[in-house]
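User: Hey, my collaborator sent me this sequence without any context and asked if I could get a structure. I don't really work with proteins. Can you help?
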Amino acid sequence: MRKRMLGLAVAMTALMGVAHAQDQKVTIGVSIPAADHGWTAGVVFHAQRMAKLLMAQHPGLNVIVKTSPDPATQANAVQDLVTQGINALVILPSDPDPLVNASRK
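Assistant: No problem. I've predicted the 3D structure and written it out in structure-token form, which is a compact way to encode the shape of the chain:
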């Protein structure tokens, strides 16, 4: 879990650095499974915490965290993030197969 959280933090920080360097508004979408047990609850907690911290430190950054209870709902959440105009996507798929088409967009 620490490796995944570290990866999420590194990805968000790297994208935040790009936003700061270019002085423009950047929106990052984060799509993760819903908190249905201890491990995913930790992922959701830390993703939301990091999103708040990064947005507080960098006013041009907007991080949208969406949780989904199943792969079909997660595919819809990814499509919703795309329609919101995200610049980058951080995703932890519950099942990658249903998310292939949504991720390509």
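In plain terms: The helical segments are 2-22, 38-57, 71-83, 100-104. You can pass these tokens on to your collaborator as they are.
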